[in-house]
Amino acid sequence: MLSIKNLHAGVEEKEILKGLNLEVKAGEVHAIMGPNGAGKSSLASVLSGRQNYEVTEGSISLDGKDLLDMSPEDRAREGVFLAFQYPIEIPGVSNINFLKTAMNEIRKYKGLEAMTAKEFLALSKEKQKLVEFDAKLVNRSLNEGFSGGEKKRNEIFQLAMLEPKLSILDETDSGLDIDALRIVSRGVNKLRSKDNAFIIITHYQRLLDYIVPDFVHVLSDGKIVKTGGKELALELEERGYDWIKEETVS
Amino acid sequence: MTNQIETPLYERFAAKFEIASLQSGNEHLRALRQEAFDIFRSTGFPSVKNEEWRFTNTLPYLKEAYDLEVVTSELSKEAFDQTAKLIAAHLDEVQHSIKGEQKGAYRLVTVNGRINNDLSVLPDAKDLKILSFLDAEHEPAFEQHFGAIATVKDNAFTALNTALYTDGLYLEAPKNKALDRPLHIVNVILADSAVFLQPRHLIVVAAGASLEIIETVITDKTTNPVFVNGVTEIAVAENAHFHHYDIQTGREGIRLVHRTEATQAAGSNYSNYTFTLPGADFVRNNLSLHLNAAGLESHLYGLYLTAGSQLVDNHTEVHHKFPHGESNQLYKGVLLDKSKAVFNGKIYVYQDAQKTNAFQQSNNILFSEKATVNAKPQLEIFADDVKCSHGTTIGQINKEALFYLQSRGISAQSAKKMMVNAFAFDVTEKVKIPALRTYLEQLIAAEMSKHEEA
């Protein structure tokens, strides 16, 4: 599904990703872990098309289509979804209208009819239930005054509504208490299928207790330096990241 | 004559006044005109050296060879037909955008400042008196208020209007009357050549009466320069309510300077909603409120969406003269292209005006690196037990928010529209007439669509 080859990217002359390779197939969950400053969030930004990142070398394709040539909205319409580490509050834009606009623009791109208000409402109710998202929040301004946990749950609710091929969860666990973490993970687990894939970016192993990955990659200094199964996450939790750095140096 | 910029226009107005003053009949009005013209003669059109006009240079807009005698009492058949067509199209457009939400409004049509009864749908005269100035001269409330509200001192444009207006529109909401529907005033501007218009309104809302007025503009399809120097005087009596909506659209070639000045009595509420959209070359609004009694409230809401090389300047003044007054001001601006906006809000709290609440907020978003805003709050407080606040912000569109919306599949263009509507929402939500609110939101969205590159 996703193929990243020799990706070099950075911000204002400073190279952050230095030759990253990653293959993600449909149905897989990949965890990307690594120390602070390794480039985890930069990878999420580059994938979703954040403006200030510049790709200097390499390629990213999604089902054979070159993502790097696309605007952020077209990437989303092709099926890329980024769950933000810090979801943005937008006062005056209602959560539900925002989602409706998003869904219909995606449908239009795919040559589908816009949903009727009734269809949309029914779908929204179903997905709210699925990911345990409070109905009261749906009609509020987008993320305005939401708690940290509510914001993250809203990200998962949007994910459920938009049904992307590839979801990138950028530090979704940060700032969540254990209950919120459980709810968010339950939501994600329900949304996993053989047709979609997840990249879970996290600093801690904790989230991976709930969302069990197929692969764990360690990102260090802009490259993936080690790949393993879910047990690698446990080892990292226990031993930290330094041993890997030493291993790669030697 | 100090600092007068030697415009041919100034000389031509001087010559016109010499003739006009010979013709005027009413002694009181003649004196009023003379006093006003003396002020205009001594100051001339304001230059940027005048603090009140520091950011707004009117000179480029005064260079045309405007026709000063354009007002005719009767429209030619062609002009009438043209106007009727323009109005029908305008009403269609309004109806289309509000999808028939509004059950209707009374309609008062003015053409270049003159009432046109044939194109109007007016309420019963016992519910609202509507007269031209020529017919209103002997109305007691007209005699009491005309020329007594608008400040001519230090206001050259208002002085010029007072000296040389030819006719105007007099509205009087009788005591304790409330119209069942809003009154829609359609101001039609027709210009066969470059013209200088000086429309004038006097609106009296008697004790206990309430009135809702929506003003819109229709222009012809030419680009002939039109300078509109308008004055609206408003008297809101005890316990009267007046919601006054002014929707300023226009076309290339239109230049507008308008002074709206109101006096308020105890227990009254005057709310002004000024929406300025792209179109006119230049708009300067002076909104000045005199809170002449204790215990009353005033609301001033403004939204300007500017584009092209447009210049939109809003100056407000609120005079709190007595205790327990409340004024609320919220002006928001969205600037596209090379446009320029000015906001200057003055609040005066006089020594006797204890327990005053006066708030002012002005927020602006620059959508383009070439757009400019000059915003200046000015508070002068002479009482010691008051609550006053002001705040001004000038920012750019939040790029992270824009990216957030895009990352969900929403095009940059739709995302910007959503964000502009959200930004404007604080002001549009204040509009009390739902259909009008819808119309305004549609106008904003349509303008944003026209500026794809914004």
Automatic annotation (TrEMBL), chain A:
Keywords on record: ATP-binding, Nucleotide-binding
Gene3D superfamilies: P-loop containing nucleotide triphosphate hydrolases
Entry GO MF terms: ATP binding; ATP hydrolysis activity
ABC transporter domain ranges (all copies): 2-246
SMART domains recorded: AAA
UniProt-listed PANTHER family: ABC TRANSPORTER I FAMILY MEMBER 6, CHLOROPLASTIC (PTHR43204)
UniProt similarity note: Belongs to the ABC transporter superfamily. Ycf16 family.
Protein name (Swiss-Prot/TrEMBL): Iron-regulated ABC transporter ATPase subunit SufC
TrEMBL record, chain B:
One biological process term in Gene Ontology: iron-sulfur cluster assembly
Pfam families linked: SUFBD_core, SufBD_N
Residue ranges constituting the SUF system FeS cluster assembly SufBD core domain according to the UniProt record: 192-423
Domain SUF system FeS cluster assembly SufBD N-terminal per the UniProt entry, residue ranges: 25-185
Superkingdom in the source lineage: Bacteria
Family of this protein: Belongs to the iron-sulfur cluster assembly SufBD family.
Official protein name in the record: Iron-regulated ABC transporter permease protein SufD
Organism: Taibaiella chishuiensis
Lineage: Bacteria, Pseudomonadati, Bacteroidota, Chitinophagia, Chitinophagales
